[in-house]
Design goal:
With 428 residues, the protein is an alpha/beta fold. It has a domain of 236 residues: Type I PLP-dependent aspartate aminotransferase-like (Major domain) (Aspartate Aminotransferase, domain 2, 3-Layer(aba) Sandwich), CATH 3.40.640. It contains twelve helices and 13 strands. A hairpin with a 4-residue loop joins strand 2 and strand 3. The structure holds pyridoxal-5'-phosphate. Pyridoxal-5'-phosphate binds next to helix 4.
């Protein structure tokens, strides 16, 4: 596969974009052949500027649920765009969309809309503090809630004081959660949690029902708000809030990424209890009221309600998981596949159970070179435009990758990426 044009773009980006690229779409920590720029996206496929096609297991880091360039969703977007989008006041789409989420999600009695997941988590944080004028918020250690000063995992340029009223606990450890709440004393504003553990590198997966119920009870006992950050997992596990499986409803839930299948919109949904606080906080943004992404979100929600996307993405994820399992067994390379099958985190392990960074890297490098965009340390996302044939093609490439795997010592990794990933592994 040629990559001359992609490399030239990379060189140009180095001159005019800090670090060549910023944030999660920088490929600096991925294998060297990973393309950073794409010219086209359709269904589950991406094309780079050299014309290479990739089966994309990342789904845009989450926003792609029904397939890139989805005809019906994009038609809803385009027809709204032709009428009114960003203007001096919102259109009625904002009410229709709020009504639709209130109908769909049990705890939701109101909705407000913003653009990114970080907007939604930051609004929830402020609302929880406004609720009873309390300050302490309990978070899980190392959980990602976005890139604002209060939550970015890389703290360069922040002053640390934004975090002075957070208390951290071990995710899925009810005792540790209770201890954190005890520390907050009578100043507990809320608890913010993700519905599943989906951090990079570490094993992903669901918490216990006991933990979820404990979080609910502690918030009730302390007149504090339970906030569930559904930005990554929302509608990928359930057509409801993810903790409906435990019978636990939050007071606030935060959504983003796939709400409009890639068009920019995120949301905070809230219960009656939180309505007063949400009405008092001042939150806004120039593009938060744009109507076209709302029209796209309405169509996306209709597809969530009326199609079997959820069951299909689970089935496809299981097909991938079972296939990779058997390929890795026959190659004698232990694989770790965690998280829900439709949001898989796939990494290779050494004999001692530690993450095998070189093998995982080399695997992703070979996969990319054969047209499969596989991520070496972030959970991936199966989308509903994928087919069993796509999964089988991924498995064929995986089989080839494991058969042609170089010896661990012969695998070269960019030293900066190796150091960053090994420090992640050591800390986790
Ligand atoms: C759980 C969770 N919360 C919040 C965010 C932040 O979302 P955004 O990047 O849209 O600001 C993310 C992004 O990955 C996320 O996974």
């Amino acid at each position: 596969m040629g990559q001359a044009k992609g490399k030239a773009l990379f060189g140009r980006a180095q001159k005019v974009i800090p670090g060549g690229m910023y944030g999660h779409q920088s490929t600096a920590l991925q294998s060297p052949s990973t393309p950073q720029f794409f010219s086209k996206a359709e269904g589950t496929y991406l094309w780079d500027y050299d014309g290479n096609r990739y089966i994309d297991l990342m789904s845009g880091y989450g926003p792609n649920l029904f397939g890139y360039a989805h005809a019906e969703i994009n038609a809803a977007f385009a027809s709204q765009l032709a009428e009114i989008d960003t203007a001096t006041g919102p259109s009625a789409r904002i009410i229709e969309l709020a009504e639709a989420y209130v109908d769909q999600i049990a705890h939701a009695e109101w909705a407000l809309f913003c653009k990114n997941g970080t907007d939604a988590t930051s609004i929830a944080l402020r609302t929880a503090r406004a609720y009873r004028g309390k300050r302490k918020v309990v978070l899980a250690k190392d959980t990602y809630h976005g890139a604002a000063d209060w939550c970015t995992p890389f703290q360069t340029g922040t002053i640390g004081e934004e975090r002075s009223h957070f208390i951290y606990h071990e995710y899925n450890n009810a005792e540790s959660l209770e201890q954190a709440v005890r520390e907050a004393g009578d100043d507990l504003a809320g608890i913010m949690l993700t519905p599943i553990r989906h951090e990079v590198i570490v094993d992903n997966g669901e918490p216990t029902a006991e933990y979820a119920k404990c979080a609910r009870r502690l918030c009730d006992d302390h007149d504090a708000l339970l906030m569930i950050d559904e930005v990554r997992a929302g509608f990928r596990l359930e057509r409801e809030c993810s903790w409906c499986r435990f019978g636990v409803d939050p007071d606030l839930s935060m959504w983003g990424k796939l709400l409009a299948n890639g068009h920019p919109i995120s949301a905070v949904l809230g219960s009656e209890k939180a309505r007063g606080a949400a009405s008092k906080v001042y939150v806004t943004g120039s593009f938060w009221f744009s109507a076209a992404p709302m029209a796209a979100a309405l169509k996306t929600l209709e597809l969530i309600q009326t199609t079997d996307y959820l069951e299909r993405t689970i089935d496809l994820g299981l097909r991938l998981r079972e296939g990779l399992d058997s390929i890795s067994k026959s190659a004698g390379l232990p694989i770790s596949q965690t998280g829900p099958a439709q949001m898989p985190l796939v990494m290779f392990n050494q004999e001692n159970g530690q993450r095998d960074i070189p093998i995982t890297y080399a695997f992703c490098e070979i996969a990319v070179e054969h047209g499969v965009y596989f991520h070496p340390f972030h959970n991936m996302f199966i989308n509903a435009a994928m087919t069993a044939a796509d999964i089988d093609q991924i498995l064929e490439v995986a089989d080839r990758a494991l058969r042609s795997m170089p010896a661990r010592d012969a695998i070269e990794i960019n030293p900066a990426a190796r150091a960053a990933l090994e420090s992640f592994v050591a800390e986790s």
